[in-house]
Amino acid sequence: MSHLKILREINNYTQEYVAEQIGVDQSTYSKIERNPKNLKVDQAEKLAQLYEVELEDILLQGVTLSFTHNTFTDKGYGYVHNIFDSPQNSKSEKDELINNLKEQIEFLKTQNAQLLTLLGEKR
Description:
Elements: H1 3-10, H2 15-22, H3 26-34, H4 41-51, H5 55-59, H6 91-122
């Protein structure tokens, strides 16, 4: 499930409402929600304001969150489901997930190093 969809659902917003808030039609927002790589910077900024989160949280890609229930507070916090405690996940599925997470960690480390370099150049 897309992190944008999760943010929308925990805030009880419709796609139509979110689309209106960021200045696109519902079908365009639906595409953005399915593939956040198509999100423009100004749209991401509007989403961050709408959901009261950091811009980085909106730009987060490739991370799947799963919530155990739909009871959330006004701020949209919930309980994250720990997939490793789930008996329906086989060892091979868990191993594949672990490998995917390791790849994501390495990518994020590289991205973090690049960002730190850019920040250092601007000082």
